[in-house]
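To make this tangible, this section ends with a sequence with its structure tokens:
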Amino acid sequence: VPAEVLSADGWLSDDPWIALAAILEHAKRGDYRHISQLRKWILDEACDPTLVSACLGLTADAGLDTDLDFLAELMIEGPTYLRIEACLAAQWSGVLWLIPFIVETWRSLTRRADRASVEADLSNLLDPIENEPEFFGSDLSETEYKEAVDLRLSELQNAYGSDRCSISAGEPVDMNKQVWLMRKSLVPSDSDEWTDWSNFLIWRRKFEVYSGVDCSGFYGKNGDFRPLNAAAILDRYMASPLPFEVGKRYFFGNLVP
């Protein structure tokens, strides 16, 4: 890691990639004060789209309430491409109170492909993994769809007592239960077939964000998935799991308040 990235004022660098990396290093230590600096690159239309996506991802994963407010503003007032990306970021954050803003973005979109992208975000948040998806590719009218989301949100808020709860697949994030599901999905049904990991990519990302465990070993040099390697990494974590509180957000083992 370059020394500038690890320096106390690396987040002030004129090089946005250096500044982003420095802000990430601060966040890994539980210091989320500089996440708000990412907004200037998210809003800069001349910025590299990869940089914008990385900034949105870190805002979702380690952003404070004011940073999540910024995501909500983007979903209402941003250009179409940013509204869609902000919906994905809101999905990664999982925070219940952001979901109505995702729905409003969905209602404002006219291209079917854009709507489908946002429906996928809502489905990943609200649909239990064991059920057929209710919120993706449904035949509901716009009004019926919004009412269905509102009903599910009301049920979740009543059940868990707060709209600040972070959810995934229709329930509060329970990271150590999720790790168990990840490990279970890697059990082969026979010697040649690996089954039941349609949700694995979502689980892997959230596990890496919450725990800080390096999951690059899940894949070979060519990007091919290595289930035995993945199982070994999960087994090492499960031998000494972190004490995550259900429904809370974490970044590299630290609580995001």
About this structure: The CA atoms of residues 106 and 115 lie 6 Å apart. The longest helix spans residues 142-160.
